[in-house]
Amino acid sequence: MISLIASALLAASFATSRPVPHPLALVSRALNDSDIYANWPTYDQLPLHPSFPTKAAWGVWGADDELGALNHIRNATILDAKNEIKLGRAFNLNLDLSMPNPPIVPDRRPLIHAIQPMAGYQDDIITLNTQISTQFDGLRHFPYSTNNSQSTYQFYNELITFEDIMVAGGSTTLGIQNAAQKGIAGRGILLDWAGWMDSKNASYDAFNDTTISTIELDAVATWQGLDPDSFSKPGDFLVVRTGFTKQYRALSLYEQEILPFRPGEDAQFIGIEASDATLRWLWDKKLALVGGDNPAFENLPSDVSVIDGVQRSLHQVFIGGWGMSIVEFLDLENLTEACHELNRYSFFFTIQNLNVIGGIASPPNAMAIL
Ligand SMILES: *[C@@H]1O[C@H](CO)[C@@H](O)[C@H](O)[C@H]1NC(C)=O
Ligand SMILES: *[C@@H]1O[C@H](CO)[C@@H](O)[C@H](O)[C@H]1NC(C)=O
Ligand SMILES: *[C@@H]1O[C@H](CO)[C@@H](O)[C@H](O)[C@H]1NC(C)=O
Ligand SMILES: *[C@@H]1O[C@H](CO)[C@@H](O)[C@H](O)[C@H]1NC(C)=O
Ligand SMILES: *[C@@H]1O[C@H](CO)[C@@H](O)[C@H](O)[C@H]1NC(C)=O
Ligand SMILES: *[C@@H]1O[C@H](CO)[C@@H](O)[C@H](O)[C@H]1NC(C)=O
């Protein structure tokens, strides 16, 4: 009897590195597949347990869930989105994989692309830090932390620890294989903040600490002829054009070369404001993922906002808290031009990230179809 209990406990502790018992088991939402928003918590009801970090959605998709916000994408979401394909015009949303060059965070190595001549054919070899160009941030990328110290890391649903990621041959939980194997497709919505600013002749600097608020994003929607209260649907992919890519492409090679090396306070980039208001606005929209043409979706440096009394970045709450991936450095230029031409801001999209078991992030291979 004792050995049975002991082996059951042992099995439980191998199954997950969570402390046992975990409050997640008590508060997790029972999911009804035919009515996934039954018992859906309001923003004010987050987190489901007071011991969970700021505005975490732990347990909202079940205690062992590894898909997070991608759960908003159901079969019907993809089926509905096929109605967005009206012209058959496909748009690549990925930058050249070596861009920006050098990477805007100098600690990150540039892309290495080598050609290997063989007998009668040739191969190529790509060595890539997945954070340097257009990227899909997976759920191993960003935990909550209070002081950036590994001892304070808290990953989505507390399913893994920092050690789980670092140990060779260890756990693969929360790796990007989950997103790759789910298959991501659906409806995308573009908000062209930069175009809205240009329409007002308002100047902005994407290489500065310019923050974009949800009040502005609602105004952008209105400018585009969309109703701010209903332009998005559950399962949508929301993309914001900040003007970063356009401004970056306009730099001389020399200016691109020195951009990452601006001293301390100047090392800033445009993005969405990290605030309680942003989180509430996004939570209510039930989005599957968010993205932008800028380095981090939120402005950089991040980690400057106090939310519920704790310093938090959007990255911490999105990835560590909601299990919501962020797609960064998207190339939205051609898509945006076509959207304005057609006066239509929704499209079919697909993302097929690399199927790397235990992976942290990946090029998204993102495509929009109008
Ligand atoms: C699940 O939702 C459907 C549709 O709202 C409802 O008919 C059914 O009773 C629910 N099932 C459970 C177990 O609550
Ligand atoms: C949804 O698609 C998955 C495969 O992607 C399939 O296993 C499942 O049965 C589908 N559900 C419905 C309700 O059709
Ligand atoms: C944008 O469109 C132009 C003109 O068709 C094309 O040359 C360019 O490759 C496109 N950009 C991307 C990133 O696909
Ligand atoms: C970070 O916070 C944790 C928990 O409060 C503490 O144990 C640790 O010493 C701190 N680390 C640093 C580098 O401040
Ligand atoms: C913006 O500037 C252009 C060219 O100077 C001018 O024609 C236009 O009226 C201005 N628009 C606004 C909203 O000020
Ligand atoms: C960048 O922002 C600072 C204040 O935050 C401002 O003083 C500076 O003029 C801005 N630079 C540009 C080029 O807009």
Automatic annotation (TrEMBL):
GO biological process, any: L-tryptophan catabolic process to kynurenine
Residues of the signal peptide: 1-17
Pfam families: Cyclase (PF04199)
Assigned keywords, A-Z: Signal
One example GO MF annotation: arylformamidase activity
InterPro entries: KFase/CYL, KFase_sf
Listed PANTHER family: CYCLASE, PTHR34861
Family the entry assigns: Belongs to the Cyclase 1 superfamily.
Protein name: Cyclase
Species assigned in the record: Mycena albidolilacea
Lineage: Eukaryota, Fungi, Dikarya, Basidiomycota, Agaricomycotina
